[in-house]
Write a structure and sequence with these properties.
By secondary structure, this protein is α+β, with helices and mostly antiparallel strands. The chain contains two helices and ten strands; from the N terminus they run αββαββββββββ. Strands 1-2-3-6-7-8 form a six-stranded antiparallel beta sheet, with no helix packed on it. It has a two-stranded antiparallel sheet with strand order 4-5. It has a two-stranded antiparallel sheet with strand order 9-10.
């Protein structure tokens, strides 16, 4: 009887872990568009512990590597701090490491290597960095249950808002 009880408890724990992993998986590939700029991303469930590990640097496996946040598709190049961004580049959130803060990076890569495992945020493949800058997130009262990106028109450009949990970063692009 004791063995049966232990087996049943172990099965419940494993089922719970599988459910938790399934709950964290993205539910859809989302595209946001503003004029001639499209952005595609997976809507992963927000995880405050994962964000803190990225922000502060950590030995947690998911915080030792960058996260592919989105793929950028401007029909015409957009510019981020003087660097042109072309269609098909990816946006990566890199973890803090030592004295280097968490950063956003735009990279040119071979897209056949991205999102091959739908249950994890893609690890960025090798490629050429177009631009990198510290990621400046602010804490906001609205909590995004899943990663959410939004485009908006600003004077002279386009803003990409990255909302993860109660953290919001705004990247400003010009034309």
């Amino acid at each position: 009887m004791r063995k049966l009880g232990f087996t049943a408890m172990a099965a419940l724990v494993l089922a719970g872990a599988a459910w938790q992993q399934a709950e964290n998986m993205p539910t859809q590939v989302t595209t946001v568009q503003l004029g001639d700029v499209r952005v595609r991303y997976l809507n992963f469930k927000s995880n405050e512990e994962a964000f803190q590990a990225l922000e502060k640097g950590s030995d947690v496996p998911g915080a030792k590597r960058g996260w592919v946040i989105a793929r950028l598709y401007p029909d015409k190049p957009i510019v981020w701090n003087g660097k042109p961004i072309y269609g098909g580049n990816i946006l990566i959130l890199n973890p803090a490491s030592g004295d280097t803060p968490m950063s956003f990076e735009v990279r040119v890569i071979d897209m056949r290597d991205v999102w091959v495992k739908p249950d994890v945020i893609a690890e960025p493949p090798e490629g050429t960095t177009v631009y990198s800058a510290p990621a400046q997130f602010e804490t906001v009262p609205d909590v995004a249950e899943r990663l959410t990106l939004a485009l908006s028109e600003t004077e002279g450009g386009i803003q990409l808002a990255v909302h993860y949990g109660n953290h919001l970063a705004k990247l400003q692009f010009t034309r």
